Amino acid sequence: MTLLLSRTLISALLYFFLAQLGLQLAIPPGFASAIWPAAGLALALCLVWHPRILAGVFVGSVASNLFVVETIQIESILIALGIGVGCCLQAFVGYQLLNKLTINNKWILSPIRIRSFIIKAGPISCLVSASIGSLTLLASQQIEITAFSFTWLTWWIGDMLGCLFITPLLLIFFHKEKHQSKFKISQVVAPSVLIFSLVIIVFSFNKNDSIEKANQELVADNQKLALQFEKELERYLIYLRAFKGFYLGSNFVDSVEFNTYASNLIKSSDAIQTISWVPRVPRGKQEEFISQISAQHNRAIKISQLTNITTTQDLFPIAYCFSPRDGSEQYLGINVSSEKNRLETLTRAWRLNQVSLSKAVLSNDKLNQSHFYSGYLFTPLFLNSLNQERQNDNLIGFLVLEINYQRLFDNLIKTTFNPSQINHYSFTITAASGTKVYQLGDIPAANIKSSYSINKVGQQWSIDVTSKTIYLYNRKDWQSWSILVFGALITIMLQIFILWLTSNNNHIAKQVKVKTRSLSQAKSKAEQATLQKSYFLANMSHELRTPLNAIMGLADILKSSQLTEQQNEKINKISQASHTLLSLISDILDVTKIESGKIELELSPFSLTSSLNKINALFQEQMEKKGLSFKITYTEQNNHWFVGDSHRIEQILMNLCGNAIKFTEQGGISIIVEQSKYDAGKSLIQFRVVDTGIGIEQNRLKAIFDSFVQEDSSITRQYGGSGLGLSICRKLVTLMGSELTCDSKKGIGSRFCFELILPHADIVSTSEIDPVKEKAQAVKNLENKQVLIAEDNDINQQIIAYQMEALGAKLSLANNGQEAVNLVQSNKFDLILMDIQMPVLDGISATRQILELENGHSTPIIAMTANVSVQDKQACFEAGMQAHIGKPFDVVKLHQVLNKALGNNINKI
């Protein structure tokens, strides 16, 4: 008994939980769910624990249905009981159909039994709850007959999906020890769950989109209603202005003239309850007022009070009153200032000399014995209103227009919304005081609501429109329904296929899984290898620069010493080989940066003529030594100054020329540059590099632009090279928005072409760098100056120290960033040369700490590092460094940077 009670309680709790989950996927208005996992749970628990646990299923079903209603009433309890009976009866029918099939727990291994299970557990047994539940909702008038088929079909599909997914899963779980060697739950569940999850996602998005469209339509209608309300209030203000002009333009207006004018003015405004003339009557002239008004109306008029409130000075009784309906006489003589709300509105209108609207007042129509909320528009009239100059004594009275909010919003709703669909909504109008001045229809529990606020006549109004259940039913979401149906069919077919495949091909599935895992690992290793390659090349390019800086630096030091001619020749060859190696390292670094997308163009004004002269100076001597002709032809138009990355343009031309020199043994090389007008402020520059070298086979023209590729392996052996030059050129040209092409004939030569569209730049005054003057200036700036060198490599320390001592500087050395910080704490330096990658504390961190010290906040710090990427330079500048010198460094460049830094003429160089 204890076990049964425990299982019944567990069944109730599980059913309630899964029912709440299913309700999240309900198609609006929510009576039928897209998938109902609780149905599959009930069937599985019956098959495993016997139908005696259906009491728990019944309790869970009733509780889940009562949980979603706002107020529990007899009707909602009866509906929940009817649905609960349907759920239990469906689970019991499913138990009778499937008990014998699943009793030996081997049904999953037979395709025939799988098919029988799917048919009985899904389409057949699920007819029960869908039918009983839909009929219960229809009988309780929760749905209309037109919505019955939609509700029934959605309910049936939801239960069927729940049974076909949850029931097999739970049966396998409860009997997993009997399937351990033959079956794995994930093989059945994972693919179908994945597919159906996608279906649910699409369904949810579409359902939300449908609700959002319904909401947008409701918002549009609500805004239209608010606009009509604003227009109506504006119309009333026009009436009051017209009446005011009529009054001020007449010497005297009697009751007949008042009623005639009012009748003609407001005859088309059904929502105007009354329009009244309320004169200002001093307390000493009450009898005179009563006598005059009684005479005009041919009956005795008395001044009456609305409440016990009395004004201290004047009275404001209604002298004339017109109503489109009968009964206006009942208002005559009422002192409107005897009621707090109207007194406040009157006073505000008097003080501001403008129309003022009262708070909502609950009015009583004595003729029709009805109550409604009204608003009173008070318009003050002064003797000299035309010039807007008034004193309190100038007030002669008020025109008061009473608005019947009930009629007003009845009329507005009928003109804004389709009359046949008004019962689909609930309308609530709230005035500034928080008073609900209008209510039409019961406020439903539907989740589509539009609230709109307007500010008119100094008051804030809130217009709320809420859709009812019938609104959503009339907007049947067939698109979401179709997604659900077709998604369910696809998922069910997938489930059937996987069950059959699993039961017949368990061994094959295991083998496939093993192979798949191997392929996945291989793919992962391949991807990792690609990433490691890029990282390795970039890292090695950096690491190679450090010893290369030492080699080139030591070569420069040896050049300045006393050497024999033979020694000097060898040093020159070392230097030449070092520069070749540096060029190769730079190419490798460029390839890795291009492949990783980290290369950026540095745009600045440059002279194309200067760039071409630089290339001519660089290659002219090489050409002469090799016995080749070299010619640069530049067709210039007006201005040779452009905005672009001159370094990358020169790099492209130098690589193409270097390549041409390598493969040309006779004849010559030409660089042809043609400039033509492209657009206002821009020119089209065409570049052609033509050689008379060995040429390239036609079938190899595309391959030569790949990294590490040359025309064939014999070329590498004969001519050398890394195969990176052309690849870099093409990628740089592509980065500039153009294309590098090649025409070539074997044995005749090659022609490489590209074109760039460059904006014009203003002519910049330039001067050639004089190495001798730069060094002399550096000596002047650094002589006897205290310089700190932070460098962890001993050889590089010696090289930098040699160059700085040659300039007359007094040096201090730090082997890491922390030592540099410690030295600055106790010493004042005129300049700090900072490496970036150092042990203990790196150069970036050390720079930040030094700049916070009293001795270091104004000291120029220059990065001297092998980290040469754009990102590395930016990191140095952001840390507070003033300049960046890449390793291996050029001595002339070093002198130039030092002069700018110490002369405070530096801008992130």
TrEMBL record:
It comes from Catenovulum maritimum. GO terms for molecular function: phosphorelay sensor kinase activity. One of its GO terms (cellular component) is plasma membrane. Its main location: membrane. Residues 539-760 form the Histidine kinase domain. CDD domains: HATPase_EvgS-ArcB-TorS-like, HisKA, REC_hyHK_CKI1_RcsC-like. Residues 249-412 form the CHASE domain. The modification 4-aspartylphosphate is found at residue 835. The keyword Plastid does not apply. Residues 786-902 form the Response regulatory domain. InterPro entries: CHASE_dom, CHASE_sf, CheY-like_superfamily, HATPase_C_sf, HATPase_dom, His_kinase_dom, HisK_dim/P_dom, HisK_dim/P_sf. The chain crosses the membrane at residues 42-69, 76-97, 117-138, 150-173, 185-205, 481-501. It is found in: Cell membrane. Its EC number is 2.7.13.3. The keyword Cell membrane applies. This is histidine kinase. Keywords: Cell membrane, Membrane, Phosphoprotein, Transmembrane, Transmembrane helix, Two-component regulatory system. The lineage of its organism: Bacteria, Pseudomonadati, Pseudomonadota, Gammaproteobacteria, Alteromonadales. It catalyses: ATP + protein L-histidine = ADP + protein N-phospho-L-histidine. It is a multi-pass membrane protein. It is an enzyme of class 2 (transferase). It holds the Pfam family MASE1.
